[in-house]
Amino acid sequence: MTRHVIRGASVLMLVAGLAGGAYLGEKRPPQTTGYVFDSVQADAADMQLLKERQNAHAAARSRVTVAEGTATDKAETVAKSADGYAKDLDKSVAAAKKAAQQKASGPVAFAGPIPSSCNEFSGSRAIGCALTLSAGFGLDQFACLNKLFNKESGWNYRAENRSSGAYGIPQSLPGSKMAAFGADWKTNPATQIKWGLDYIKKRYKTPCGAWSHSEQYNNY
């Protein structure tokens, strides 16, 4: 009997405590409302700050990109100008080098006099006319020599037949034969013509004889 009474009393006290807690809970004002509001505001502020930073970063990057593009365009323009200048300089240097080589390689100037009877000719032809007369031939023979050397080389002291190796105004084969009249046989028209006249005299007696042979056989 006593045990049942004690147990009943305990149950009543437990129920009373739960009811009182519920009552107190109902009367107590919510404690979390302000915290949630403050957290939302803080998150919004952080997001706004993040967006502002992203926008600032994008703007800064855009300015850098524009600056880099401008610098690249300027660099390309300068590079193109420099490249063009370098190419022009290379051409000028090559032209000057070629001119210097040609000057150094001849033709050797003629040291002898040009008779007044040869004044109608110029260059290697004038030299040929003077040397023909010096060799004891008349102007009529130079007319034949002029035709012969026109056909062979056009009076070009550097004329070279790549297939045969013939060289110079008289087209000596090989060109080194003309060294008998001078070590400068490659660049001196007078040396070449002297060799040619000597060859003609020994083989055909006269320039007109050599020209006649050339007309018939296409060589002399």
General description of the model:
- Helix 3 crosses helix 4, helix 3 packs across helix 5 and helix 4 runs parallel beside helix 6.
- The chain has 220 residues and is mostly helical.
- It is rod-shaped.
- It folds into two domains: 57 residues; 102 residues, no CATH class.
- The protein is built from six helices and no strands.
- The longest helix is centred in the N-terminal third of the chain and has 72 residues.
- Helices cover 69% and strands 0% of the residues.
Short description:
The chain has 220 residues and is mainly α.
Rg (CA only): 56 Å
| Terminal-residue CA separation | 164 Å
Strand content: under 5%
Most strands sheet: none
- The secondary-structure element order is HHHHHH
> Could you say which structural class the secondary elements and strand pairing correspond to?
mainly alpha
Give the total of domains. Answer: 2
Helix content: 55-70%
Number of discrete helical segments? 6
Which residues sit in consecutive blocks of at least 5 with pLDDT less than 50? 1-5, 21-27, 32-37
Q: What is the β-strand count?
A: 0
Mean pLDDT: 79
Principal-axes geometry comes out as rod-shaped
Write the layout of secondary structure elements.
Blueprint: H1 2-27, H2 33-104, H3 123-134, H4 139-152, H5 189-204, H6 207-217
Helix pairs in contact: 3-4, 3-5, 4-6, 5-6
Give me some keywords for this one.
about 0% strand, 2 domains, 6 helices, about 220 residues, rod-shaped, mainly alpha
